[in-house]
Amino acid sequence: MNMGTNTQMCNNIFNEELKMLLWKALSLISLLNSFLSAVSVTAPALDVYIRSEGYSDRGKTSFTRGIAYIKVNGKDYSRHGRGHNVVVVDGATGVILSSKVFDTHGKRYAGDNLRDHLKSIKGNKIVLVAVQEDGSQYSSSAVNALKMLGARGSVRGSYRSSFAFVGYAGTGQQAWVKQKQNNRYRRPSEISQKIPLSSRDYKCQNQTLQGDNGVIYSPNYPERYPDGQYCMWKIMVKASFQVALMFTHFSLQSENNTDAVCLYDGTNQTEKMLAVFYGGQPPPRNGIYSSSNSLLVVFRSDENGSFYGFQASYSAVKCSGPLGMESGAILDARISASSRMNNNSTPRQARLNFIEQGSKEGGWSSLVNDREPWLQVDLGSYTTVTGVATQGKNSSKLRQWITTYTLQFSYDGVIFQLYKEPDKMSAKVLHGNQDSDTVVYNKLISPINARYIKLLPVTWHNHTSLRMELYGCQGCSSPLGMESQVISDSQITVSTQWYYNPPKSARLNLGGWVAYSANRRPWLQVDLGTYSTVTSVATQGVNWFWRSLWPWHHYNLWIVSYNLQYSDDGKAFNFYKEPGETLPKVFNGNQDYLSVVRNKLKQSITARYIRFKPLRWNGYRVGMRTEIYGCLECAVPLGMESGSISDAQITASSQSDGNHSPVQVRLHFQAEGSKAGGWSALTNDTNQWLQVDFGSYTRVTQVATQGMNGADEWVTRYKLQYSDNGVNYKFYQKTGDNSVTELRGNRDRDEVVYNTLRPSLKARDGSQAGGTMAKIIPNGTYV
């Protein structure tokens, strides 16, 4: 279906809104008549069972420290973690919206995180809570949030006490809100409750949703949606963010596209239409992104049959990170062009900041007689592009650059569309360069969602030569559903299992799957349900296998190394190999039972089935937990280069003079006049430092450095410190390092060197580093 047909269809939906209102009025009359003639009405209900076991409780689960159970209609959704286990259920449909655990016994900030989570739950939501082992140590800050949901009395409880709670986030008092708690040495706290589902707070039309994340779904989901529906959701996130919408389930009529979901880039239907999805044209698994902080979603069904509808999650994201031209993440083979001047000016030299090296010219150049030159980038998968940066050719002799250009994009590399701004009939002409080396960045008012991007020079200086970078969101790095249970129990299969640890326990942060001891070729397989793009995988050891038998050994079971296999049909499997390699990739696993080790794939996998093949393991049985990723990862610039981090937030131990100040430390800062191309300390010693204040708790996953532009000065090695308050600092230590980690610096002036932090510097999480400030301490310099 082309965009014109999509627009016409969604406009028809808009024009028929009056008709839909009339239909709804008639439906209300019919409903009223039915109600008046009915003798009784039985609302659907949930069977809820909650059991909280304290560490010292009599009658707790044998050979354990206590377990928290939260069952809905017979299925356990508890995370089985120490502290407060929280499950949120939609009060209209019974859909499980989230399941989280907060270690309020052992982690200092867990109470704050629990409080923030509970306060974020709004509207017709049922909140189920069970404490495991103990939750009294760090839960005081969450007491008021629990009371807002209906809790009463001494919510915090005493040391190692049990606590079970059924709460409600909507308006009005509910008779089924309950709370049970017992002090230590007594029996576990239990609640068995039938909760009627009610759509009284559910508004199909004109919902305005705010916050960092949430879930929307069709009426009656996961059952069939009714005929004649017209629903609108206006999603608004923080001003500096964009909306990412990910469909987790989608089932609409395929032969009749009048049942459809339409997305608009803004708050009303006069804004640009981003996409329209129906059964024959489902949404991409890696999501759709708005260009601003708002997105309008419209769902409409006709009166000619229905399916099971959809569920989608939205989140606030930063979608402005470099996509890999400069870093090399985009491989040479994915960069092509209409022509090349010679073998010294090839398309692969079109990377931003590529420098002239001997006979290799500093950029791509087309043939002289190429009348329609272009440069094309294959992003490898469906990607949102929000910006483009260009440079001219880096050359000691030639002055060549493009001054204006247009863009085209494609989903398949065959059919291309011109990039246009909203309400414009002609292609957008973007401004290029005025010299060889200055980077000129163009933000796209209307983001492009595509796999292939083609840049077409319109005008140029002397010759068509350029270097470039693309910016946006690399689709495919979000969890695909093991931990969240979007992947069902039946989709997880194994070679064999130990009695107490079935395949369904192989979810990240749950208990763990364990193979039978006699099994010598173990495997764990996940059916993703449909063809998916997998970009990384994570593993953990087993959390409570040994507790069910011999509690003194429960820390000793994890996978040390493994292979990956993938399949389209679940029968014929291929080993994953890295590009250019002939042998299967051996992935590093875990070093303990608790830590999560995530391995990113250099080349993504497109398949339905993923199989883990353990090679080496710790302990005499094989056991593991896992998550598989295929969408959005935190790896966007935080604002040094762009300027969103202000000058006042950058400080240093010293500066050599006013022309080498800390504010000049921004990536790609260029020397100009008397201003040096970077920061320099007053003296060259390891007592010098550079500090960035992020202003609030921030997760840092990567650090990039350059040397001094215009001078042979750079840092060859450095260390990182981080702090919550700017007073007390800790050194960064990489996973597996026994001492403070030294990070690799630079070897020349301008090359950008990236260091990925594992673990990341992550706020409000006692298991990883966290803070508001990062400090770089040089440990080796070259002058």
Automatic annotation (TrEMBL):
Name used for this protein in its record: Neuropilin-2
Domain F5/8 type C residue range list: 319-473, 476-631, 634-764
SUPFAM superfamilies: Galactose-binding domain-like, Spermadhesin, CUB domain
Compartments in which it is found: Endomembrane system; Membrane; Secreted
Gene3D superfamilies referenced in this protein's UniProt entry, alphabetically: Galactose-binding domain-like, Spermadhesin, CUB domain
Membrane topology: Peripheral membrane protein; Single-pass type I membrane protein
GO BP term, example: cell adhesion
Disulfide bonds: C204-C231
